[in-house]
Amino acid sequence: MEEKPAQRARLPLNGLGVSTFVLILCGLTGVSSNQVVVQRNVNAVLGKNITLSCIIEVGSNLSLTQSSWERNLPSGTITLAVFNPVFGTSYSPDYGKRISFVSPSQRDATITLEGVGFADVGSYTCKVATFPLGNTQASTFVNVLVEPKVYVSAGSTPLLEGGDESLVAICIAERGRPEAEVSWESDLSGQSVTQTHDDANGTTSVQVSYMWRPQSYAQGKTLTCVVRHPALQTEFKIPYTLNVQFAPIVSVEGKDRSWYVGQKNVKFTCDAKANPPTQRFTWIRLDGPMPEGVEISNNILAFIRPLKRNDSAIYRCEVMNKIGLRGEDVKFWVQGSGEEPSLEISENVTAVLGEDVYLSCRYLGESQIQSAEWKRQTSKSVFERLAGFSNDSSSYPESVTNLTVQVKVSSVEAEGEYICEFKSEDEFFSRSVFVTVLGRPDVQILVREDVINNTSYQSVTCFADGGRPPPQISWVVGSLLPSGYPFTVSVRESRPSNGLLNLSSVLRFPTHLQDEDNVTCVIQHPTLPHPKLATVRVKTYTRPNVTIKAEMVQQRGSYFWVVSCISSGGRPDTDISLALNATVGLQAEKDSHLDVQRLSVHLPAAEYDGRSLTCMFSHPKFSHPEERITTLPTFYLHKVETDSSSFQDAEYLELQEGETDVISLQITSNVPRYSVICTKNNGPLPEDVELIGQNLTFLAGVKPLHAGLYECHFSYLHLNAVLRFNVTVKPLPLQAVPPTISVGLRSEDGRWVMECVAAEAVPAANVSWLVSQSVSEEFWFNSSSYNGSHTVRGVLLVPFCSPWELTAKCVIHHPAFELPENRSITLPLCARPNITINTSTEWKDGRKYTKVCCSVISVASAADIRWLAEDNNNISNVMQTELLSEGVISAWSSVDLPSSLLSGQNITCAVKHPSLETPAERTIHIPEHKPPLLSVTVMRQQDTPLWQAVCDCEGECFRTNLHWVLPKRARPETPPLAEFEDNGIKATLTYQFPLALHEGQNLTCMYQFDHRISENRTVQIPKYYITSVKILNHSSLLSGRHSDQRVVFGLRVQKNHLNQRILLGVEGNVPEYSLHCQRRDGSTVEVDESAMTLQDEGLYSCRASFYHHTASMTIQVEVTDEDEQFMQIMVICISSVTAVLLILGVVLLVFCKKDKTTKYKEQESVSALTSLMQEPGSSEVKKPGAAEDKGIAQLDNYSIVLDVKSAL
To answer: What is the pTM of this model?
Structure first.
């Protein structure tokens, strides 16, 4: 037995040239490295697609056998997708429609998963099988993210300046997974309050409220809600504009100037900033009424005359809105005449708390100064004197025109207005300056570390205490501004009683997500010439590089696997463990050097054959423990199976006699070494055949005695493999005889038959056909032998018809030919089919149908006809064929559909035929199916009481589709009678009815030309009425208007006038009417055009009618004489005038005698007067005797009765 190292060799399977037989033998002294690279974590958005990458780094000495993706479920492991370089791809039925490889290859097993849901959360493993190393895998964890819904809402109460801390706005990120990071960005000094709520499916809603004490300076400024979430590509920002309501902030333009006597065009403009807007401006003078010559126009106070000295006073502008009232004072001091101011004073001064400030004031005039002082107004009417002098004071300054004082700023109460005053004998000078007090902040910075749920967090707090106004605090991490996740910034402020502000800002972040080792707090404030920086060092983590490594070593004659878990470059140290069911006594070795950690274990190669080992790495920089998996190879030793395997598991190998051949032996193996022994026919090898390395060598050439069964036994420990191959020796070739070649062409059963014959050849020739175009073809070959010569016949069958000019070439190979011989046959082109298409229409059961026919005349086989609509959908059809003559076939297909379905569309006939490269199409346009034109009229008929409705239909009309639609409540018991006139182009439908049946209703004529489409026209039947018959002549109502009696009109006519006429009319809307009149005795009276001719007096009755509408009236006619009537009128008039005059005379006499008569006489007079109202002969009227009172004997009493009878 000979020990040999593992080698690779090849053995060709043909018998030409060097003869070899292929087996593969691969021996390894170590495990070559191959790496599966996947993403550790993949975040997927709910409902969207994700890509799981798997890149295979295969060494040059390895080849990919198979790659796959698996998923670990509680029920077990399932295989999702498999890629094999030979057999292609395969997918799990549960994921077949959702999962696919992106571009499968030996180096890429990346897959795409569509429509990700919550059920897809978990670990996915990319497993790779390589030869000869075995299996290697890596896992990735898929987490499903849910994009939150974000919105911002205002607080429940308005923001009022000076109020308590209020809720400004709420930012809500609803139902995110994981929970969104929500924060407010603003330069205000408010604070954020965060609340979270867990929802279904592991989602969380986050609500962040912004609390702040409202101040007017922030009106119109913007708060920005910033939402960060892994499902969002960028930060999501929603601005919110502040609306702070405050009382007016008043300022006066021109108040800081100097004024002098005689100055002109002096005015003050009052401005105010307010929310809501200002409602009113008011100017007042505090010490009294406004002087003359002052004009106030809304917010402007103007002196329309030159200034006087007594104009000096304090003027106030008051402004009001809905929130409140505020004012601004103008200290208006008018100095002596001149164009230049008399005082030079410091501009508005800014002082720092704890330092001194100098206030300078100089008098520039020529007057003799009597006194000067600095004072400060502590309230509206109280002033505090700070420094100064006067003529009667004991101390006197060196310069009476320069009054400069030093003020120690010890508190914020020093802020305010300071007034400088100079007095001379004749004049008074005053100016003011405003001192603003600032507080310089004291800065400190602290770092604190917290551990929450095994996660380290660092909080850097920057204090800026004692600032005024509030300082601005910002952060710099490394050299960048911390914006967004994982940084959060919160600001808190407090206001002690000294009027200053203590401000603190906290920058918080997880230690494992921040890589910079220093954090800088930047404070900006007006008291600082440059921003103040406070830097502090913070703890940082570094992500380690982790890997697993397996190497085979030989110790004391045995082989061991050394598996190492390696972590390098990490801070802090990585927690490493090895998942292994170790045998008793197996120990792991730990080693740390510089920043490299290693955990190693020695495993016997025989015991851990094919085992999978997992290294677990835990580190703060890892979101979850990292895994590195390797599978130790399984040793194998076996031969390579080939397609030529046959008799008794042996390969047949033919060698040429006399050739010096070498057979290379190869097997598939991954063992470090093996031994091999070869035999022939269960005996030793022939003397001139030796095994040299991997090659079985024939030293003196191949001889016939070398034929036989060879066996080679390969072994390593308990592994064995046997390679068997049967060697035959091919004798030297005979003398070649070239064939006789002939070709022929004929048609048979609709196909061309081409025959190629290579006859009387030694050895037999090889015959084949080549066709110039891709057509449906069929081959068959046969051969025969006679006296040692061979004849080979090759037949080619092709379709009789082809769209191309077809050339077939017969190729003959034979050893006697240096080059192959060939013979060609060219077939003619096939005639193109003749295609026609036409259309026709017909009516069936009230519907119009369109029939489209497509006919094709072609040679050979019948054409295939299909119908296509505009949307490329197939239309069902019936196809028929007919043999016209020898070789000519007619095929036709028709489509018969309702015209409404094909209206306005293009119908295409698609024809397939062997003579056409692509289907031929013929398109025909179906005219648009237009609805008929309907018109409806209604009319009265002359000789019948019925009305008639006529419906005319023009166009493509079918009489059975035309009908009337009558009102439901007015439908008669029997259907309406209809008459039709139908000639295909025009149809008429009539309907007769009494007016009373449909009066005031609508009649509809409807044409139903499809089950879903209809056309209709509607006509309205007029509604008539007659209320009464009226007399157009002058008449009077005698009776019946307010009683149950009939209405009777009275009419007077002139005597002795012939053919007098009474004109009659009708109140109503009837177009015409018939009038019938008769006397009381029933005789008829002549009526002509609504006029009745009178013959004598009496009672007449007249009746007007229109169909079922009627009205009647009664007329009483009296005949009068004109002269008699005139005399009656004269008598009535004279009597009436006389009566009136007498009544007036009596009334005058009664009033004249009232004071002279006695009570008795008054009663008598009243009685006498009353008697005038009684009828003659009444017993109640008595004339008193003359003896009762002689004084009134001369007064006579009369009773006058006017009785006028008249017919009027």
So the answer is: 0.36
